[in-house]
Amino acid sequence: MLSIEEMISEAKKARELSYSPYSKFAVGAVIECKDGTLIYGANIENAAYGLCMCAERNAVFQGYLKGYRQKDYLQICIIADSEGITSPCGSCRQVLSELFSREARIICANMDGEYLVTNIDELLPYSFSKGNMR
């Protein structure tokens, strides 16, 4: 498993791939899989804001398209240039609650080196799941 510092470094690389001309808020995410594969995601914006895609969902969805599943994910790191740590939005939290391992580490960071290590149960304790709360 990569260290927190290594994950932050990889997330910074992903952030460089962001297309964020409207918000000017570039976000990067990287997922480490159990087999050592790294899957990168960045936020991609559109003039029609509803068509934008967050970095976290971008990475998770790419992983699924490559054949990875919830059980294959070890950790994810999300980073942006923000005053405090960057945390997943509500939509990303819901996607992570269903498509990401409940035991997996979630690292929320900023470019200043601040970070928080958490998991999806702490970020979204009452996630929506087929009409039932977990």
Description:
The chain is an alpha+beta fold and 134 residues long. The chain contains 4 helices and 7 strands; from the N terminus they run H-E-E-H-E-H-E-E-H-E-E. The protein has helices spanning 4-15, 55-65, 90-99, 120-123, and strands at residues 27-33, 38-42, 73-80, 105-110, 115-118, 128-129, 132-133. The strands form 2 sheets. A 5-stranded mixed beta sheet has the order 2-1-3-4-5, sandwiched between helices. Strands 6-7 form a two-stranded antiparallel sheet. A hairpin with a 2-residue loop joins strand 6 (128-129) and strand 7. It starts with a helix and ends with a strand.
Report the principal-axis shape: globular
Mean pLDDT: 95
- Run of helices and strands: HEEHEHEEHEE
- Class from helix and strand fractions: alpha+beta
- Report the helical percentage: 25-40%
Rg measurement, Å:
14 Å
Task: Pick out the low-confidence regions.
Answer: none
Oligomer: single chain
Please give the count of helices.
4
Lateral arrangement of strands in the main beta sheet: 2-1-3-4-5
Span from first to last CA?
Answer: 28 Å
